[in-house]
């Protein structure tokens, strides 16, 4: 499908006073001191459209600062179709704006717009937030029967879009079933389905792997050393840990690489997480190989420079490679590539230090942005043309960039404690840990409610 996310524009004059993420603010129930008002216009006023384009401005008419991460805006729709959300441009930065579709009883739903950071000072407003949403199948749809829709192309106060502050209704008139935003999440939580696996399997031939949607790779081909073997027997699950043992004796015929992948390509927007153990040194043999240890999502390349290709990578190189002399961790987002001659269309963020040991890795995919977290710390923030367009597989693999020719067989080990995905929902890294702990406390070793596309 085509997309029009565009590059983020910079505003030269900000009327919003943005606070740092860690700013101290007291959250109080919506009141006269914390009065909120919303204005709306549309840049797509037709009764039917390929995408709805609500533009919003949020005003603080009160006397206290409002932390934006306590604000939820709800735009109500008619129908049960599946939609996708995007932020085209916002003075507050699209990187802080989230959008999730929530089903109501019957044939209604609403788009809930939130914020990850920032604050709104008294007497200030957010200025433009140019939002849009479209059907997942890119079919045109009727928007004139949506409760929150209005045909006006100039801003005006609009009470058919609601605003909640700190979980309480602060503006507008809701419609349909509208549960209390402070209600605890359902179990299991998630936007449109959850995948969780703690890898309790007897081995690579355990029939549960296939039944639960996993494939242990045995087929030849890239990435890695040409002529290397992808060996299921080098994949194991001791103590409930996915364990990838890749080895080489310095020859292609003596090189074994490892990979575990979901069978279904059904993962797109939402939150991906895994607890991964990287290693700097081999478990046996001499060190020095250019090995790649990974957690990633991927859409296959149908042809050179295929625009529907997508890939979101965590890649750790304990001994360097690709021109790097020593340890480096990459977060890389791909638009596309071609093999011969090599042409890569991607963007990456890297840190050159050791990441040996266990790490909680999170990728949030929403609203035109991909945010990569390592142990709760924002590691990378990508978007624009690199935003994935199509459903992806989830994969873990360990492979060799090239061979260094050392004498003796050396084996490198990567391990994974769990994998978690919540479809169409942005989940904070700390909340991921809480959800995984709750699933384990309930005795859940595996669940998959993510629907096929």
UniProtKB/TrEMBL annotation:
One of its GO terms (molecular function) is cellulose binding. Residues 1-25 form the signal peptide. Residues 156-427 form the GH16 domain. One of its GO terms (biological process) is carbohydrate metabolic process. PROSITE patterns: CBM3, GH16_2. Gene3D superfamilies: 2.60.120.200, Endoglucanase-like. Residues 169-198, 210-232 are annotated as: Disordered. Residues 32-176 form the CBM3 domain. Keywords: Hydrolase, Signal. InterPro entries: Beta-glucanase-like (IPR000757), CBM2/CBM3_carb-bd_dom_sf (IPR008965), CBM3 (IPR001956), CBM3_sf (IPR036966), ConA-like_dom_sf (IPR013320). It holds the Pfam family CBM_3. Transmembrane segments: none annotated. This is Hydrolase. It comes from Nonomuraea aridisoli.
């Amino acid at each position: 499908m085509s997309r029009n996310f565009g590059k983020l524009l910079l505003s030269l004059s900000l009327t919003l006073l943005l606070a740092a993420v860690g700013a101290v603010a007291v959250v109080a129930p919506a009141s006269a001191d914390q009065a909120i008002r919303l204005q709306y216009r549309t840049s797509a006023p037709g009764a039917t459209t390929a995408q709805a384009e609500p533009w919003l401005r949020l005003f603080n008419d009160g006397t206290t600062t409002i932390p934006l991460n306590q604000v939820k805006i709800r735009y109500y729709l008619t129908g049960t179709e599946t939609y996708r959300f995007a932020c085209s441009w916002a003075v507050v930065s699209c990187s802080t704006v989230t959008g999730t579709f929530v089903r109501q009883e019957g044939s209604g739903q609403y788009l809930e717009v939130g914020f990850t950071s920032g604050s709104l000072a008294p007497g200030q407003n957010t200025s433009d937030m140019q939002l849009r949403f479209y059907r997942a199948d890119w079919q045109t749809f009727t928007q004139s029967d949506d409760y929150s829709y209005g045909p006006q192309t100039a801003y005006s106060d609009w009470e058919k879009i609601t605003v909640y502050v700190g979980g309480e209704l602060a503006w507008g008139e809701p419609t349909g079933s509208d549960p209390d935003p402070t209600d605890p999440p359902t179990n299991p939580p998630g936007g449109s389905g959850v995948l969780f696996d703690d890898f309790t399997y007897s081995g690579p031939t355990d029939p549960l792997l296939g039944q639960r949607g996993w494939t242990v790779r045995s087929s030849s081909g890239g990435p890695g050393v040409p002529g290397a073997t992808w060996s299921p027997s080098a994949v194991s699950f001791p103590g409930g840990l996915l364990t990838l043992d890749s080895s080489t004796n310095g020859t292609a015929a003596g090189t074994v690489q490892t990979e575990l992948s979901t069978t279904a390509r059904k993962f797109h927007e939402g939150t991906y997480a895994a607890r991964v153990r990287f290693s700097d040194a081999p478990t046996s043999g001499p060190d020095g190989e250019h090995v790649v240890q990974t957690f990633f999502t991927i859409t296959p390349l149908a042809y050179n420079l295929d625009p529907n290709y997508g890939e979101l990578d965590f890649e750790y190189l304990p001994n360097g490679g690709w021109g790097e002399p020593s340890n480096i961790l990459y977060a890389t987002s791909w638009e596309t590539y071609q093999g011969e001659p090599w042409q890569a269309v991607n963007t990456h963020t890297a840190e050159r230090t050791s990441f040996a040991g266990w790490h909680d890795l999170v990728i949030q995919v929403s609203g035109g942005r991909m945010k990569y977290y390592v142990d709760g710390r924002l590691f990378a923030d990508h978007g624009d043309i690199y935003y994935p367009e199509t459903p992806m597989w989830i994969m873990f693999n360990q492979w060799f960039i090239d061979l260094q020719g050392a004498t003796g067989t050396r084996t490198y080990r990567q391990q994974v404690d769990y994998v978690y995905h919540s479809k169409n929902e942005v989940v904070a890294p700390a909340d991921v840990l809480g959800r995984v702990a709750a699933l384990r406390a309930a005795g859940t070793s595996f669940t998959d409610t993510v629907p096929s596309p």
